[in-house]
Design a protein that fits this description.
Blueprint: E1 4-5, E2 8-9, H1 11-72, H2 80-105, H3 113-136, H4 143-168
Antiparallel strand pairs: 1-2
Helix pairs in contact: 1-2, 1-4, 2-3, 3-4
Length: 169
Amino acid sequence: MFSVDDGKFTAEDIRTVCLGGAHAEKKNILEELKMKGQKFLKVTGILMIIGAALSIIFGVLIGGIGALVAALGGSEALSFAFYLGLATALVGGVIQLIAGINGVKHCDKPENAKKCITWGFIVIALSVISNVLEVIGGGKFNVLSFVIGLIVPGLYIYGAFLNHKENVR
């Protein structure tokens, strides 16, 4: 039952004696799930904040450059697709920023996991909408953009689910 390495008890041996076998194992598993969920939420939250900042910055730059080119070219109006794409980038960036901040802020609060799950699904929905609008607007379907738009929020949701499991127990 006990393992001795160089005449010393291991930390696992002490947990087993103090907390009693199966209970100790269950507690360790719960602690690992909690830590895993916290790490997933924090890391993916930070990635979402970075992605959101880039989306907002590029959205503003592209909007400004588009307006400047239209003014210099004598065009009175930019296309509806341009404004729709710009609005999607900016709104999507702001929502992703909110989701990322919530993930980092609430990564250690399992009671707020449902809120993070909701924000994650909203970010995924906006990513899909953005890709669909790109194709409708005549652009090519960008597989890398689509996959990244699903992976980071998907891992964010996974971390929130792990935290939610911790809250249920």
